[in-house]
Design goal:
This protein has helices spanning 2-22, 26-46, 50-75. The chain is an all-alpha fold. The chain has one domain (2-76): NADH-ubiquinone/plastoquinone oxidoreductase chain 6, subunit NuoJ (Four Helix Bundle (Hemerythrin (Met), subunit A), Up-down Bundle), CATH 1.20.120.1200. Helix 1 packs antiparallel against helix 2 and helix 2 (26-46) runs antiparallel to helix 3. The relative contact order is 0.12. The mean pLDDT is 88.
């Protein structure tokens, strides 16, 4: 059961990573990146490393994604087509 759950999370991580790269909207791309990091944190937790999973969630899903959104907000309309 646990192996199947890890496989499903792995497929979900792959899908969100591809969507993050392929998305043309920068905000959606950042949100897919955030979701990817949350899924990777869940995989790490399922593998038995809860402290690493918390670190993954705090630093990558929290910090890096918020920095991307703050940078996007600061740049503003400069990146519009």
């Amino acid at each position: 059961m646990e192996v199947m759950l890890q496989f499903l999370f792995g497929v979900l991580a792959l899908i969100t990573a591809i969507m993050s790269i392929e998305s043309r909207d920068i905000v959606r791309s950042i949100l897919y990146f955030l979701l990817f990091n949350v899924v990777v944190g869940a995989i790490i937790y399922l593998l038995g490393a809860p402290y690493v999973a918390v670190f993954q969630l705090l630093v990558y899903a929290g910090g890096v994604s918020v920095l991307f959104l703050a940078t996007l907000h600061t740049i503003g309309e400069k990146i519009k087509k």
